[in-house]
From TrEMBL:
Chain coiled-coil ranges: 336-363
Record's keyword annotation contains Ubl conjugation: no
Membrane-topology descriptor: Multi-pass membrane protein
TM ranges: 12-34, 54-79, 100-123, 368-385, 392-409, 429-448
Protein name per UniProt: Lipopolysaccharide export system permease protein
Single GO BP term: lipopolysaccharide transport
InterPro entries: LptG/LptF_permease (IPR005495)
Keyword presence, Transmembrane helix: yes
Subcellular location: Cell membrane
Keywords: Cell membrane, Coiled coil, Membrane, Transmembrane, Transmembrane helix
Pfam entry (one): LptF_LptG
GO CC annotations, alphabetized: ATP-binding cassette (ABC) transporter complex
Top-rank taxon: Bacteria
Length: 473
């Protein structure tokens, strides 16, 4: 049965949590756009494409936004209660801090479950959609955008310059179209005015030029064999293909479906088992591809345990007749080069398999570690808020940023070590948890004993005592 005290703390938590969650998602999305802003500008992307990408990218960032939202909202909740002396009144009534934290602990467990389900079922699809769309946007050519007095050279083989555009962008004046038909001849068109418009099928940009001249060169480019032609016109129509500009065609999602980030935990488990089975077959392949070049490899297990018969040591050079010594050296060098090439190929394939295996293991553990991070950061935020006793977005925001940066850098460092193979993925992906759980236990211990760990007056008293002791001595 939920008591009034539990309802009080849950209501005080829900408001800051919802607000900080959406603010965090917005900040993370804007940070992502800041990194890729150059790839979005000038592509002529429609509003629908941009909103679709924001929708997918927001879903991808939810597991990272939830821990920060839990940390900041728990800090604000307990800080507000401490600042208004409600926390002191509750403690004076004989209710412990752990009992007061219990309803939010249950709520945080529920958030952890939501984060896990989101990471396992929603994030793979959102990652697939956003990464495919991002690749299409990055590799799309800039849109067809003509500016006054500037040569536009994004069309292959053409350079276009217009002197003036009317407000409706359709009536243009003083047009120059420079055309390079091949490596020798150069042609260009000059017109005093004209109309610029998009064709009905949106495939071509049409220039209807008026009162101009077309200059054309024909021949080999030398003065003896070249013809120079000048054609005057009252009206001339020129079309430019826009098929390669902007985001004209979307890539199929199936292109990235085998990426580790696009898989659920069940799919990751199946992939990990398959990769491990392939790794176990590498030893047999080494025997086939490497030892197959060596004839003596067939007799490795025949008499290597037998008792050695002492013989007079002679060098290999003494056993070879001088007539075939050069031939033997040549064949031995060829055999060594073949073995070296085979070893390098197998080693490269083995390293790729190991890298792929680590990537799948990292993604498997990420789905759980980011979910558990909500609970870990709550165990830091709740006692820390009851210690600092400050509400609002001042001190809680500063402390939240500090501890979230510790969480982010420790998790990023562990992931980097796991990717490089210098650390087991089971340790690397849980490094932030191993690092922050002792801090959370320590802060909870201090909060239960009304510690003044972050109180300015506490440190002022210590400073005065040290100063008095120094003066006495």
């Amino acid at each position: 049965m939920i008591k009034k005290l539990d309802k009080l703390i849950i209501k005080a938590f829900i408001g800051p949590f919802v607000a900080t969650f959406f603010i965090t998602v917005l900040v993370l999305v804007m940070q992502f756009f800041w990194l890729y802003i150059d790839d979005f500008v000038g592509k002529g992307l429609s509003t629908g494409i941009i909103l679709e990408f924001i929708w997918y990218q927001s879903a991808v960032l939810v597991p990272l936004a939830l821990p920060l939202a839990v940390l900041l909202s728990s800090l604000m909740t307990f800080g507000n209660l401490g600042e208004s002396y409600e926390l002191i009144a509750i403690k004076s009534a004989g209710i412990s801090l752990l009992r007061f934290m219990r309803p939010l602990f249950v709520v945080t467990l529920f958030i952890c479950g939501i984060a896990f389900l989101f990471s396992n079922y929603i994030i793979p699809v959102a990652n697939l959609k956003s990464r495919t769309l991002l690749a299409d946007i990055v590799y799309a050519k800039p849109s067809f955008d003509l500016k006054e007095g500037v040569f536009y050279d994004k069309l292959s083989g053409f350079a276009i310059k217009i002197g003036q555009k009317e407000k409706n962008d359709s009536i243009i004046k003083n047009i120059i179209i420079y055309e390079q038909s091949n490596g020798i001849q150069d042609n260009f068109i000059i017109a005093s005015d004209g109309v610029m418009r998009i064709s009905e099928n949106k495939r071509y940009m049409e220039f209807i030029l008026k009162n101009g001249w077309r200059y054309e060169e024909r021949g080999s480019g030398t003065s003896a064999t070249s013809d120079f032609i000048r054609l005057g016109f009252k009206e001339y129509k020129r079309q430019f293909d826009l098929g390669s500009f902007g985001l004209q065609q979307r890539t199929a999602d199936s292109v990235n479906k085998n990426n580790a980030r696009m898989l659920s935990m069940r799919q990751l488990g199946v992939a990990i088992d398959s990769i491990e089975k392939v790794n176990k077959l590498m030893a047999g392949r080494v025997k086939t591809d490497v030892f197959g070049f060596l004839p003596f490899s067939r007799f490795l297990d025949s008499n290597w345990k037998g008792k050695a018969t002492p013989v007079k040591a002679r060098s290999f050079e003494q056993l070879i007749p001088d007539s075939i010594k050069a031939l033997v050296h040549q064949k031995a060098g060829n055999r060594i080069n073949s073995l070296k090439g085979s070893n390098e190929i197998i080693l490269a394939q083995y390293e790729d398999l190991q890298r792929n295996l680590r990537q799948h293991q990292i993604e498997w553990h990420r789905k759980i570690s980011l979910s558990v991070a909500c609970l870990v950061l709550f165990l830091i935020g709740a006692p820390l808020g009851s210690i600092i006793r400050k509400g609002g977005l001042g001190s809680p925001l500063v402390f939240a940023i500090i501890f979230f940066m510790l969480f982010y850098f420790s998790s990023t460092t562990g992931e980097k070590f796991a990717k490089e193979g210098s650390m087991d993925p089971r340790i690397g992906m849980w490094m932030s948890t191993f690092f922050l759980v002792p801090i959370g236990i320590f802060l909870t211990y201090k909060a239960m004993r009304d510690s003044q760990l972050f109180s300015k007056e506490f440190y002022n008293r210590i400073s005065r005592k040290i100063k008095a002791l120094r003066e006495k001595n």
